[in-house]
Write a structure and sequence with these properties.
The protein is mainly beta. The protein has 3 helices and 24 strands.
Length: 280
């Protein structure tokens, strides 16, 4: 028996080298815990950022339904020709990654017809009108809000704005973009699949040092894409919607929807974007 075991163990080790370790599945849930194992729904991680750090090449990260307030930026360690790594919603369309928060209740400023104010002690990169699908951008002064609708000013713990139609703002239809990063960004997206994720509320006017392209934020952004699929995803009210970095290869955007994205300052944005030429 001992002789057989001595023979079997090297064969198992050789098999693992030749065929690779078995793929794992990890889970994320809004009721999870980042200190958990992540290997069962009952032991799910709390954040998607923790989940992507746990998976390796060929693994699957399944995200349970809910709203996830975070910016996910991750570099996939894969090499072309390896196993496919998957990040997916358990039910397509049931997962929302968002960088915004509900707007406060506003009050009209005395002496103005169209300008309203509210207490606000957090960043404000944009104010989103969800009923009109318009993004309010910063204005130079409070006075200009009276004549140039659809802008806002953040000053001394106060958020001032005029809506796109000049009417009283309804907090039920407004949100404020507060996270400075991107929604879901994957560098070195090789042999990768993203399925069923929605992203909203990522908008910034700040440029990262030595990175001239950083000023325009993205809902979903894949760089170095090779043999990759983005499927059944949705992006709305971001600087950019769904973007592929320069010269993707064998990469498909399938059954995705992007709308109401776009930045006019400091860089222009759009809904579904491919930078440079594509190969296959």
């Amino acid at each position: 028996m001992a002789s057989r075991m001595k023979t079997l163990l090297p064969l198992l080790a050789l098999s693992a080298i030749l065929f690779g370790a078995a793929a794992e599945e990890y889970f994320v849930s809004v009721t999870g815990n980042d200190g958990a194992s992540g290997k069962k729904e009952s032991e799910a991680f709390r954040t998607i950022s923790r989940g992507v750090r746990a998976i390796g090449n060929g693994d699957t990260l399944t995200i349970l339904p809910g709203r996830y307030f975070e910016s996910v930026e991750w570099k996939l360690p894969g090499k072309e020709g390896g196993k496919r790594t998957v990040v997916r919603a358990k039910y397509p369309g049931s997962v929302l990654i968002h960088g915004d928060k509900p707007a406060p209740r506003f009050r009209k400023i005395p002496g103005y017809r169209f300008v309203y104010e509210a207490d606000w002690n957090e960043p404000a990169f944009a104010v989103n009108e969800r009923d009109t699908l318009k993004i309010l951008t910063p204005s130079a002064s409070i006075r200009e809000l009276e004549f140039d609708f659809g802008h806002f000013v953040l000053e001394n713990g106060k958020l001032y704005l005029s809506t796109t139609d000049g009417r009283e703002p309804d907090p039920a239809h407004l949100s404020v973009s507060v996270l400075p990063g991107n929604g879901f960004v994957i560098a070195n997206a090789v042999d990768f699949e993203l399925d069923g994720i929605s992203v909203t509320g990522f908008y910034s006017h700040e440029m990262v040092k030595n990175n001239p392209w950083s000023a325009s934020r993205h809902g979903i952004y894949l760089t170095g894409a090779r043999n990759t699929t983005v499927r059944r995803c949705r992006a709305f009210l971001n600087s950019n919607g769904i973007s592929l970095g320069v010269t993707p290869k064998n990469t498909l955007i399938e059954d995705c929807v992007a709308y109401a994205n776009g930045s006019k300052q400091p860089l222009s944005g759009g809904n579904i974007i491919v930078y440079g030429s594509c190969e296959n």
